[in-house]
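Checklist before submission:
- one chain only
- standard amino acids only
- sequence pasted in full

Submission:
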Amino acid sequence: MPPRRSVRSGESCCPPAGPCSERVPLGERPLLSFVDAVKAMALFKVLANDTRIRILHHIVRSGEAGVTDIARTLGMKPQAVSNQLMRLSDTRMLASRREGNNVFYRVQNGCVAPLLDLALCLMEDERTPERARGGIDVEDD
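Returned file contents:
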């Protein structure tokens, strides 16, 4: 596994030309309002589903995927996949297009792939020996 770079407190994880590179760094933003915190919680609730995470990862990897393809890849029934895709589409993470009887989905929000990557990063960091000993791989300002 390649070495992970240390991230300074308040530094963005987004690549220089990434979808969030133009945003104000999190540490410089005002504290979330109650309403914004509830909206973030609702978004995380949608993402707190193993099937939806796997669907998003499959679509990120393939660029675009149809319901049948996703169902086959995940070993699910197309109707079950379609239900999960609707939940993801409601958050505007995904966009769809119809081609005959088939519906194809693609990631609409550029923050989806970096978010999944961050989740994997957090999981990998939990497994490192430094974390097990209580060490931290973050530089302080």
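Reviewer check: The first helix runs from residue 34 to 47.
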